[in-house]
Design goal:
There is one protein chain. By secondary structure, the protein is an alpha+beta fold. The protein contains 7 helices and 10 strands. The protein has helices at residues 18-34, 65-72, 77-88, 137-143, 151-171, 206-215, 248-272, and strands at residues 4-8, 42-52, 55-64, 100-106, 112-117, 128-129, 132-133, 182-188, 194-201, 223-229. The strands form 2 sheets. Strands 4, 5, 6, 7, 8, 9 and 10 form a 7-stranded mixed β-sheet that branches. A 3-stranded mixed β-sheet has the order 1-3-2. Helix 1 crosses helix 2 (65-72). The longest helix is centred in the last third of the chain and has 25 residues, at 248-272. The protein is globular and about 55 Å long.
Length: 273
């Protein structure tokens, strides 16, 4: 967390687009008609992520779930991308870019926890992913009420806290049994939605995690089952996922986890030398 800086403010908000904005109510109403669990909660918007100097900076504004559905899943996506590039030099200028987080949750005996998304979620039903969700601006405000001066720090803290919260709520692993999230990468999916990718370790074994999940997670409705992918022998940061249909975000997270393990080994080797 100490290596991640956040620049937060209205300068990183989505730029309006009259035509797309006019369609947003209709698109949102159609989604609600098919899934009554959806609600228009406030979300963080990732305008850009810049890496360098042994850390990274996140440029963050505010958006909402309605804006995400209206801009990223509607028929105007490609037009919004083109118009953003032409008018602002930024393909994401007119998009919600609601920031998601996803974790590769690793058990004490080295298995990766993957969840099969249920038909009640808004996207990617039937595919497998790690514990995932969105940091909540309202949670940051609750943690630091009235502290506008420190809104950037609160946003950064909430991004990392959300990783642990989602893992608990989706698997029923107690927060006390979860470690500190390690940021291992970032990606943008096929619909230009950004996600930050993390590795998160638990002190529980794979059998203990399975039992916790069987007992019922707070957000059990989001998943239809769990797979505990075993590690690949002799390859740190790699798991056996053949035959599983993974989301693009999960595929990216697994690649980043493997790369992070390779870099860690190289660093240890250099230190030993």
């Amino acid at each position: 967390r100490a290596q991640v800086a956040v620049d937060f403010g209205p300068q990183h908000a989505r730029r309006p687009h009259p035509e797309a904005d006019a369609q947003m109510d209709r698109i949102w109403a159609e989604k609600l008609a098919n899934n009554a669990r959806l609600f228009d909660g406030s979300k963080y918007r990732l305008a850009r992520a810049v890496a360098g100097g042994g850390g990274c900076r996140l440029d963050v504004g505010l958006t909402g779930y309605r804006e995400y559905i209206g801009t990223h899943t509607g028929p105007s996506l490609q037009a919004l991308i083109s118009d953003g590039a032409a008018a602002h030099g930024d393909e994401g200028a007119h998009l919600s870019c609601a920031l998601g987080v996803e974790a590769i949750l690793v058990t004490a005996d080295g298995h990766a926890v993957l969840l099969r998304r249920s038909g009640q979620v808004a996207t990617h039903a039937g595919l497998y992913n790690g514990p995932s969700g969105h940091p909540e601006p309202d949670h940051a405000r609750e943690a630091r009420p009235g502290d506008a001066h420190d809104a950037a720090a609160a946003a950064g803290d909430e991004i990392f806290s959300a990783v642990r919260a989602e893992a608990h709520e989706e698997t029923n692993v107690p927060l006390a049994d979860l470690g500190d999230p390690l940021l291992i990468g970032a990606m943008v999916d096929e619909r230009r939605k950004p996600d930050l990718l993390f590795r998160l370790d638990t002190t529980l074994t794979s059998s203990e995690v399975s039992e916790k999940f069987r007992q019922g997670a707070p957000e059990a409705w989001e998943s239809e089952g769990m797979v505990l992918a075993p590690p690949v022998a002799g390859e740190a940061g790699a798991w056996k996922t053949a035959g599983l249909r993974l989301t693009a975000v999960t595929e990216a997270a697994l690649l980043c986890a493997r790369r992070a393990a390779e870099l860690s080994r190289a660093h240890l080797a250099d230190t030993a030398c």
